[in-house]
Amino acid sequence: MPTLGPNSYGKAETRVVRVVRDGAVHHLKDLNVSVALSGEMADVHLRGSNANVLPTDTAKNTVYAFAKEHGIASAEEFGIRLARHFVTSQQPIHRARIRIEEYAWERIETAGRAKHSFARRGQEVRTAQVSYDGRCWEVVSGLTGLTVLNTTDSEFWGYVKDRYTTLQEARDRILATDVHARWRYGWSDDARPAPDWERGHAEARGHLLSAFAETYSLSLQQTLYQMGARVIERRPEIDEVRLSLPNQHHFLVDLEPFGLTNDNEVYFAADRPYGLIEATVLRDGAEPRIPTD
Ligand SMILES: O=c1[nH]c(=O)c2[nH]c(=O)[nH]c2[nH]1
């Protein structure tokens, strides 16, 4: 009989919006929560017994009930609360992995007293993944869709040229990318106090942005390393940073047919194909654990 390999089950993409009303000032958290549980699940797969199966519908309900009962202080804290609940309340469940995407809303500032209007902040999504096996925690936070661009301080030259190479060397080019970053916290057990997740996220994001802006770049690879290294150097609670950076090429448009010169002013922004630069940056002695795919 073929053997059952790794398996998990749970409810994916529960969308929960939690409002906190502090008088006329309201606060908003908007999450997409995916729960994956694993443990003693051989019988349901091999023999059709549901005796160990907490329904995925219950996982969805738990997300909503916890949002009401405990609020959502941060994506990470909410994920930790859920993971702990599933692993400690259900004997057959040995592991929980909670993935959360958080959509950022910014308050629309008005002269009036009411503070209940919000605008979505671009395409940027905050991410958190919490894994728990009853003993150890692994928290990987991150972001996607943070689009950044430098209009100068970027060169690319000195690369290998073979018979297919047509790329012109660039001494001053636009460097643009859509940052996909994940960072793993060193915190792994309840004996130590958990990091401040909200501050950790804001500061890691700030370091990624300032390193992108301040690096004089000879390649996107070099910029990537500087971004990851800045987070590792400035945030002692973070051991590993994984960055995936699409190189959003901006090509100078040939204006000569119109009798015009292009002094690095008019570009064609290509959406594909794009170079894809990916790497992990680690604290000395730390192991790479964030998946590379
Ligand atoms: O920063 C870059 N890195 C590359 O590896 C590369 N390759 C390429 O065609 N353009 C660029 N730019």
UniProtKB/TrEMBL annotation:
Which keywords label this protein?
Oxidoreductase, Purine metabolism
Q: Which Pfam families match?
A: Uricase
Q: Which Gene3D superfamilies match?
A: Urate Oxidase
Catalytic activity annotated for this protein? urate + O2 + H2O = 5-hydroxyisourate + H2O2
User: Which InterPro entries does the UniProt record give?
Assistant: Uricase
Q: Name one GO molecular function term.
A: urate oxidase activity
Q: What class of enzyme is it?
A: oxidoreductase
Name the Enzyme Commission number(s) assigned to this protein.
Answer: 1.7.3.3
Tell me which domain of life the UniProt entry assigns to the organism this sequence originates from.
Answer: Bacteria
Family matches, as PANTHER family: URICASE
Role, per record: Catalyzes the oxidation of uric acid to 5-hydroxyisourate, which is further processed to form (S)-allantoin.
NCBIfam families membership = urate_oxi
Question: What family is this protein classified in?
Answer: Belongs to the uricase family.
Q: What is this protein called?
A: Uricase
Organism listed in the record: Streptomyces demainii
